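WARN no homologs supplied; continuing
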Amino acid sequence: MRVLIIIFLSIFCFVGHAQEVDNTIERKDLKSQPYVDFLTGKVKVTMHPKTGTVSGEVTYTFKILEATPRIRIDAWDMQLGNITMDNKKVRVDYDREAIVISADFKPNALHSVTINYKTTPKKALYFVKDNKEKDQIWTQGQGKYTSNWLPSFDDMNEKVEFDLNIQYTKGYEVIANGKLVSSKPVNDSIQSWQYDMTKPMSSYLVALVIGKYEKVVETSESGIPLELYFYPEDKDKFEATYKHSKKIFDFLEKEIGFPYPWQNYKQIPVKDFLYAGMENTGTTIFSDAFVVDETAFVDRNYINVNAHELAHQWFGDLVTETGGTHHWLQEGFATYYALLAEKEIFGEEYFLFKLYENAEQLTALSKTEKATSLLDPNASSLTFYQRGAWAIHALRNLIGDASFKIVIHNYLEKHQFSNATTDDFIAIAEEVSGTDLSGYREQWLESIKFPSQEALNILTKSDFIKNYLSLAQERTQPMAGKWGALKEALRFPVNDYLGQEVVYQLEGKTDDEVIALYAKAFETNNLLVRQTIANTLSTIPKELQEQYESLLKEDSYATIEPALYHLWANFPEKRKEYLDQTKDIVGFTNKNVRILWLVLALSTKEYQTINHQQFYNELSGYTSPKFRFSTRENAFTYLESLQAFSDTTLEHLAEGATHHNWRFRKFCRNILDKLLKDEKYRKKYVDLATKLPKKQQEFIQKRLTP
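OK structure emitted
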């Protein structure tokens, strides 16, 4: 039983971090080419899903700015075909990383180069298999380099206007940057999609998605087409998934104060994406874990990721950092404007509490060896995102709303379709505000220590934050001294955050006074307060049993999951009733409630014993590659606890250990390494190894080798 509690908590923590946006860049020594400006890229590619290959050609036009004997185009591990410059043969050197073209390049001369190639990309473009004929192909250029599937430019300072022509099997949707100008058959089985762009962008933002989709097109107040894609089977989840999307777009365009710079805006969910979302130019790709129904929306919605990736269309896509030192100019701004969008939807207190939570995390980080300045190119995501947002919020407080909005407009206008540094931004802020920002820069950008006191001074301008901090100070006080304050905080209508704080302060206590406060907390009917009870009250007093049971009817999968487990553990005589009541609830996209239900049903000997094999088959079936990796993680976690791996689930674990998603791959490898310490499972893998696909077989053999 204790093991199950630990497992449950680990899964719940994973759910809690699901919306973290992580686009950490894999940096390397990039060779800039200030002597040449690549202008346009005409791309024509064909995808071959059976072999996982890409073939095609790309033609770049470029202008020589300074005399040079060579130019460079990045291309990782490709088979090169014919390469011509200005329709003539040209000298080419290739080291499996870059194509170097040598010639006597003169200043101001215009040229074109055409490269034919074929490649089997190891990253940046992914072929995602599905046994239901719903295969997907999608890209992730940031941190992985588009040059793994398309000869292009790893240096984000090189901006090109790309036009993509993509050929693929009929019956699928092919989505890419820009405006779709034609879609026509090539032959009986192949279709060609032509996309046109009108403005330049960095190569890491080139994107395409291929899959089975439908879409709804809305129009922003400024006339921008908003294309919202969804799987045909998820039509009933469309409204909840994309709730407030148009409102977010209209709000951000007005709040930023600079017109949306691209032809249209598309949003496409994909399976097993590497991150929560990615802001490809005009074409955001996001994890289909955020495809939710109305109940899931309460706990795990797409709002923050939606707004974050949209803000990047200005901060990152329109104006791009020159390098990692200035990464906060992208992630800090995207995080800040996403918070402003959430403030518009969820209110001022939500916004302030998020800032408070972020400040708490940053203060804790400052006390560790991992603390860095905001300008450290190797800073953590917490630093780039949350500290970056705080730095922007602090600047706004310092120079005022009016000056801040002019700064943002002038910054975007001056550096549009180009790159910028921190110095560029600060110079504009100083010019507009007439303020010397050297102190601000030292404190918020350069200092390793997060300026906690300054953040607190900004936060405590709010009475809400003052009231919250006053209540939080009661944590160290005995119950007798704070009971009245806790009771007062639960007065109707209860504040979300004060109510949760009360429940946290009750944890681990079950005397009569505490039970009375729990009863009052239940009666608030506040979803977040009741959810906090479900997560923290694991030993349920008999006096609260009936109220606790009401949590199973809550419109929240994040509440039902812990409530079901705790009730099952506390009241064995009612296990059948609890299981019957929740047998049809699936939960989030990771099937959190259903998978827990299966484990509890299997652990209840007297419950539907005749169906236990069926329950096990369903549980183990969720480890299959046809399910999202988050679902598979849940199933693997419980199977590890039960020590109930079959040969099939061991094969699925080996597949997971070589998966394209790095988080899931690491998760599976950790479990697999633990299993291989057990001679029983080690022998099973020795027997299974020869039946596995080559990639998995090689991986297992390495793990089995001492």
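The CA atoms of residues 3 and 641 lie 7 Å apart.
OK
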